[in-house]
């Protein structure tokens, strides 16, 4: 019996040939949905550069499209590589190649480093178990992969988010992934569903999901630029948006615009929250596009 289990673990799963490509395209669609959503406090969107001087909507879209082959390769790895240790090292190499591809497309600007990590894990996990695309199940599989050490990864990257984790003793993107993306599964997706359920527009529902993440996330992008003071202001501002009815209400929109102005003044941008919103939109879209669903969904992909 153990021999049979080992053989099953070693055998690649046969799937339709375009599955990896379709999953990669869903990731890119989620990234473009995220960057297009407006108004997002401190973040690049279709109408503003937010707190950034080197990023804009066009560059972010260029980067997302350039990364489509990377996300398809990651999905293919999930389909083909069953042993978890081998899979972790394979996707680590693909992710590093994807980062180089991103920097080439953006002439050296970091647009999606965090998204390559978060959505890369999720698209790998989705492809690894395409018969169960429930968000919690995909996120749990991604967490199992993230908890495995990649022997070929650099010990230190020198990235600002990594330094913020050390300086402020927070988990950052790695901690989120290893825990199975709790801010996606337990915070953003439920808020998205609540907002849709009460009849909010899709734009308002997505903004509310972002606010729910920002209201409690230890966002290392904010910590790296503005420290704990800026993080506290971001959280209070996001909580105020939701307390005043969210992005669908007049009072909530006023709070949203006030938060945007303040984060721009502080020159901080909640990039960690943006990556988790993109992850939320990917899992939402993934489930909506699943070929077989036992329960009706309230998604609008």
Automatic annotation (TrEMBL):
Pfam families: CitG (PF01874). GO terms for biological process: prosthetic group biosynthetic process. The keyword Glycosyltransferase applies. It catalyses: 3'-dephospho-CoA + ATP = 2'-(5''-triphospho-alpha-D-ribosyl)-3'-dephospho-CoA + adenine. Its EC number is 2.4.2.52. One of its GO terms (molecular function) is triphosphoribosyl-dephospho-CoA synthase activity. The keyword Cell cycle does not apply. InterPro entries: CitG, TriPribosyl-deP-CoA_syn. Keywords: ATP-binding, Glycosyltransferase, Nucleotide-binding, Transferase. Involved in the formation of 2-(5''-phosphoribosyl)-3'-dephosphocoenzyme-A, the prosthetic group of the acyl-carrier protein of the malonate decarboxylase. Belongs to the CitG/MdcB family. HAMAP family: MdcB. This is Probable 2-(5''-triphosphoribosyl)-3'-dephosphocoenzyme-A synthase. The gene is mdcB.
């Amino acid at each position: 019996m153990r021999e049979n289990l080992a053989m099953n673990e070693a055998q690649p799963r046969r799937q339709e040939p375009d599955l990896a490509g379709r999953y990669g395209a869903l990731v890119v669609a989620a990234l473009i949905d995220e960057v297009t959503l407006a108004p997002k406090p401190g973040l690049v969107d279709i109408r503003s550069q937010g707190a950034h001087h080197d990023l804009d909507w066009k560059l972010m879209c260029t980067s997302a499209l350039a990364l489509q082959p990377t996300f398809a390769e990651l999905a293919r790895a999930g389909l083909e590589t069953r042993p978890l240790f081998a899979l972790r090292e394979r996707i680590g190499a693909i992710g590093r190649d994807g980062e180089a591809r991103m920097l080439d497309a953006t002439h050296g600007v970091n647009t999606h480093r965090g998204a390559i990590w978060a959505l890369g894990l999720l698209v790998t996990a989705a492809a690894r178990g395409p018969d169960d695309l429930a968000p919690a199940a995909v996120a749990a599989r991604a967490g199992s992969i993230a908890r495995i050490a990649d022997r070929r990864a650099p010990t230190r990257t020198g990235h600002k988010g990594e330094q913020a984790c050390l300086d402020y003793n927070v988990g950052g993107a790695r901690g989120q992934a290893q825990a199975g993306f709790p801010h996606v599964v337990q915070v953003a997706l439920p808020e998205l569903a609540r907002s849709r359920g009460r009849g909010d527009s899709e734009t308002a529902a997505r903004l509310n999901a972002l606010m729910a993440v920002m209201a409690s996330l230890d966002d290392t992008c904010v910590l790296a630029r503005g420290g704990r003071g800026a993080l506290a202001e971001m959280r209070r501002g996001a909580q105020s948006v939701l307390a005043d009815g969210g992005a669908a209400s007049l009072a909530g929109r006023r709070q949203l615009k006030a938060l945007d102005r303040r984060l721009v003044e502080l020159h901080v941008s909640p990039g960690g929250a943006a990556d988790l919103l993109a992850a939320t939109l990917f899992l939402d879209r993934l489930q909506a596009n699943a070929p077989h669903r036992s329960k009706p969904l309230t998604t609008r992909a």
